[in-house]
């Protein structure tokens, strides 16, 4: 099924923010049919799925330490820091800085 091909592409290129149209074309479907099939297959809208991939990537970078929250924002494919901070807190329930501090305290114990 071509959805697998699209998922592989999305997982490899999520930081580039591929459009629904681009991924639909790669899958060989028109964007409306692809959108419906994608939602049916993954349980997420395309935009939501892409956002979740970016947030999970950001979480890994935060927990690995070493780079600033701003750098993590852009390295994860977000185009604005306020949007990243809002999305991160909505998804994980804490800010990126709080997650980093909490993880650092856990490692120190």
How many beta strands in the DSSP annotation? Answer: 0
Please mark out the parts with pLDDT under 50 across 5 or more consecutive residues, or reply none: none
Largest sheet: none
Category by helix and strand content: mainly alpha
The overall average pLDDT, rounded, is: 93
Report the portion of residues in β strands. Answer: under 5%
Radius of gyration: 16 Å
SSE string, helix = H, strand = E? Answer: HHHHHHH
Number of helices: 7
The general outline is: elongated
As a percent range, the share of helical residues equals over 70%
Q: Could you tell me how far the N terminus lies from the C terminus, measured between alpha carbons in angstroms?
A: 48 Å
Jot down its keywords.
109 residues; mainly alpha; 7 helices; 0% strand
Which secondary structure elements does this structure contain, and how are they paired or packed?
Layout: H1 2-13, H2 20-27, H3 31-42, H4 46-64, H5 69-75, H6 81-92, H7 96-108
Helix pairs in contact: 1-2, 2-3
Please provide a written account of the structure.
The chain is elongated. The mean pLDDT is 93. The chain is mainly α and 109 residues long. Helices cover 76% and strands 0% of the residues.
């Amino acid at each position: 099924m071509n959805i697998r091909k699209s998922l592989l592409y999305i997982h490899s290129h999520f930081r580039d923010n591929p459009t629904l149209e681009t991924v639909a074309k790669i899958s060989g479907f028109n964007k409306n049919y692809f959108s419906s099939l994608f939602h049916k297959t993954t349980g997420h809208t395309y935009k939501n799925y892409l956002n979740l991939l970016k947030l999970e990537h950001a979480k890994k970078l935060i927990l690995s330490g070493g780079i600033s929250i701003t750098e993590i924002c852009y390295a994860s494919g977000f185009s604005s820091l306020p949007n990243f901070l809002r999305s991160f807190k909505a998804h994980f329930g804490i800010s990126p800085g709080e997650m980093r501090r909490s993880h650092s305290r856990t490692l120190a114990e």
